Structures are given as structure tokens and as C-alpha cells.
Amino acid sequence: MSWSCAVPVLPLLSRLDMALRRVLALGAALGRRSCCSKPALPPDFVEALRAVVGAPNVSTATAVREQHGHDESMHPCAPPDVVVWPQAVGQVQELAALCHRCRVPMVPFGTGTGLEGGVNAVQGGVCFDLSRMDAIAELSLEDFSVTVEPGVTRKALNKHLRGTGLWFPVDPGADASLCGMAATGASGTNAVRYGTMRPNVLNLRVVLPDGRLLHTAGPGRQPRKRAAGYDLTSLFVGSEGTLGFLTQATLRLHPLPEATAVTVASFPSVGAAVACTVQVLQAAVPVARIEFLDEVMADACGRFSRMELPVAATLLLELHGSRHSLAEQQQQMEEIMQQNGGSSLAWAEGLEEREQLWSMRHNAWYAALALRPGCQGYSTDVCVPISRLPDVVVETKQDLQASGLTGPMVGHVGDGNFHCILVFNSQDPEEAQRIHAFTQRLGRRALAAGGTCTGEHGVGLGKRALLQEELGQEGLDTLRSIKAALDPHNLMNPGKVL
Description:
By secondary structure, this protein is an alpha+beta fold. It is globular and about 70 Å long. Strands 12, 13, 14, 15, 16, 17, 18 and 19 form an eight-stranded antiparallel β-sheet that branches. A five-stranded antiparallel β-sheet has the order 5-6-10-8-9. Strands 1-2-4-3 form a four-stranded mixed β-sheet. 37% of the residues lie in helices and 18% in strands.
């Protein structure tokens, strides 16, 4: 990574003090940077960062750097050289322009809840922790939209919306930042009815790698649909921090349902549970959530959350609607479940009961880890066409058993997305190799079924080879051309996706 500073100074750098001028003069002497050696940034460069955001908002402490060098994935920690906390978009611009001029890698950081190593600073550089930019800038109840900064999490937004009759339904489980969810193209339990992040993002304010500011749908615009030029908003949704910093997102809101009901249904086999899901969708039941647990996960979740749950393939189903329509949906749902050998518990309509059931589901990660205390977890993530879902899930279950791996299955099967939470001893090379081989087979099984190697977690560090198989060489070359046009020096989150 070259540190040459021969690019003309951008106007927004003009107010920086002599510390910046000194570090610019040092740039050419630093030579190429190895992702292994990770030399410390020169003190004058760190001083230049402090000149932008203030000394309390810059840290080179080892503990802070390590905290920002990993997410919830199995990828080993790769800490940045320095962490900065900008508090306004202008500061992000100045910091980006400084890093761009000195060829220093930049890594965006939200809450660190990703699952594919997206925040690991594999080439060191500067980590931009955007959590202190936490304003809810604009709320329009009439337009069903809200504009948020990157420090706003989904739970914080829905708390702010309490009493308005609106909510933001995309729910990946973790209390992730909303701009981080946009960056990874997050999904979750409600996607079958309300969609993923992609259709729920109306506009993005992006700081490009050289410090320029881009509004992907135009400044201040939030139309429900548009046909004006290339879809820049969709380009940045799912870009995983490789094209720029998402410093503001305008999101689509939805009305809260009048009535909600949840039930838990157990089935005689994995195939029967997934086949029931397909029939529910074919019958056009407007289901809000359909979550699948295999018998291993159902047992683990029941014990971890101290709830009585049959040790069987299980579906958690949630319906939204008016009280009248809900009764019809419940009857239709029960008929389909019975046709597939399912037995349903009573419908839970009270808020406390519903939250208890979904809390159990959202704790599936920790429930799986509790199966082997002291071991590490890795969550796979594939998505296939609904018609192929039963076969792929059954084949994956057989593969898990044949491989002798601990990998309870869970998934948002209403849109063909499922996960295996693999729990293994990271100090056992043989088991780690079996894990790697299984994940590659799973990804290729999804591709062979006409699906994708990742439905919501992103490519990050671990799925770059599978991405090439999925898109083909022309597709990958097109992505690289876009990356080169926006980030010609490969400074934004280098080593990810491509």
C-alpha cells in the first residue's frame, strides 16, 4: 500500500494546521505497507487526525484498536493503527480526504455485530467509528420516512417512533446500526413481508474515499420510486464499506399492524417443516415471519431460554393484520400445518408472550454456543429459491450429520434464507478444516440450486471465491471496474468482497 502524498490538496483540508503539512511531507518516505508488518502510523499523521476531531476522539490504545479489529465472526482480529470518532459529516470528509491524500486505508465501523469480518482492518489504517453521529435528523409521518445518522440503531429508532403508529421492521436480531445494516444489505425475521434493507432505503448520504459528498438520490429527496438514471442507492446498499462511508440514510417506515399473533409449530421432520413453509407462501397467506429451527436448535433454544419446546423441527410463525383478518389467517395457517403433520401450540397475541418467543429465537446464536462451552461459533448464510428450499435444507442436514459437526440449523425460510451455526474447537486444525470444507460445500450447493452464497451477512473476508463462482468473471470484472472508479487507490475497507 503506497503512502505517496502527491495528489493535489483538496479544499476542505485547507484549515488543517502544520501537523498535517508535516505528515504530508513524510508520506513518500514511508514506502509500501504490508498487511502483515502493520507499521504504526507516524505521530504527525495522528496529530493531523486530532486536528480534525479533537484529541479525545482519536485513540491508538491497544485495547481500543483490538476492540475495533473484529466483529462477531470467526475471522481473527486485525486491528487498525488508530481509531477516530467523527461527530459530523464535515469531519468524515476531512478525515477521508487526509487518508486519501496519504494513501492510508480506511475502515468504517458501526456496532461490530457483522458476521463476515467486514470491520477487520487487514491492512491496518484508520478505523472510523461512526457511533457518535447518532442524530435522527428528520421524521415525516405523512411520507412514512425517517432520516438517520450511522450511530442510530434499529432499536433506538423504533423507541423514538413509539406512539407514532409507525415502525422500521427490518430485524437482523442484533441491535445493529441502521447505516451498517444498509452497508451489509441486512435482512432478518420480517423480510418475508417487509423486505430487506435494499427496498427500505430511499436515499443515502455518502462520503466518497477522497472526501467528496454524494447523495445517492439527490440532496433531500425521498420519493417512493424513481427512474432517474442509475440506481446509486442500491449500489451502495450491500457495498460493505468498500465504496464510501454511509453517513446518513433515509428509510421507509411502515404502519404498525392492528393485531399480531405468534405460534410455535413442531413437525415430524425437517422436510415437513420446510414443505409447510412453501405451502404457506403458495397459499398467499400474508405471513410476517416464518422462522425455522431444526431439532438440535429447538432443543438448544428451549434450554437456553428456559422455555418448554418440543425437540423437533420447529417453525415460529407471526401474522399481522386487522383482528378480523387475523382470525382467517390463523385458521388457514392451522390447516396447512396439519396437512404437513405439524402440531401447533396456542397462538400468543399478548406483547409479553410474543416478545418472549422472539427473544428465544434471537438468542439462537448464544444457545448454539452453549452446546459446546469454550468453543467458537461461525454462522453460515445461504439463500435459495423457495422451490428448492426443502431439498437443499434436507441435503445440508445430511451433510452435517455425515461430517460429524455441531451445526444447528436456523433460518428465515420465508424467503429461502437459512443458516447453520457451526460450533467448533478453533484449536483443533482437523475440525477447523472440516468446518471450512462444509461451508464451501454449502455455498456451492446453494449456487447449484440457483441461489446465492450469502442472503444477508455479506461477502466480507470469507466468501470472495464463492462470489466469483456466483457472478462469473464478467460480473466480478464489472464490480472491480465500479470499485476502481470510486476508489482507485483501494483505500476503502481493502481486502473485502473483491
